Amino acid sequence: MAHILTGPSLEPRSGKARQLVVILHGFGADGNDLIDLGREWGAVLPDAAFVAPHAHEPCEHMPSGRQWFRLTDRNPHERWSGALSAGPVIDAFIDAELASRGLDDSNLALVGFSQGAMMALHVGLRRRARPAGVLAYSGLLIGPEHLPEAVAGRSADALPPIFLVHGSHDEVVPPDSLFISAAHIAAAGGSCQWHLSLGLAHGIDGAGLTQGAVWLARSFGLPYPAALAPGPAPRRGAVVS
What we know:
Blueprint: E1 9-10, E2 19-24, H1 36-41, E3 48-51, E4 57-58, E5 66-67, H2 76-101, E6 108-113, H3 115-124, E7 133-137, H4 147-151, E8 162-167, H5 176-187, E9 192-197, H6 206-219
Parallel strand pairs: 2-3, 2-6, 6-7, 7-8, 8-9
Antiparallel strand pairs: 1-3, 4-5
């Protein structure tokens, strides 16, 4: 039986969708948990529609929430098989959302948090056409040993730009996951930027939100957002490519 995802959405402030931002929630949450990111970023991306689908599986540990795949013992093999199962469901949702708005992958950005970030990276790096970018908060690259095979025969510019954001005190997904993921993406020929939020646990802070907004705008080929006043230079990682 095919899974059809549903969830909250926000239409663009301008009234005409020229970009689509798909936001994938974390384990035990649902689309309502992150759709407010679209409200935060709407002033910076007035032509973007935001959609935050509910995952296709009920969460075993949190009956009111959803999951992209089960998590029993954080086994990497379990994550990999779960990603393989959830990936086509997310791809089908993205294809339908793009088609309904007359857009293609060059107008698409994937954003995810925690388990949703894992799926955003998994799907974004394997789309048939290159998305504008993938923004992953507090996640990791699932099955890094499988990435070279997935991108074999594709040029480096066929892979989407990646922005990894993580808290330095994350006790759920260790912050080392950021650097390990970045290294594997770079080894596969991808381009990756990162930001480490000092003192932050498993979450998204103001700096991460602001830098994410700027990064999304630039990924869509837009100028530096006038809605954001220039501030101190952010503490962030170098480009890895």
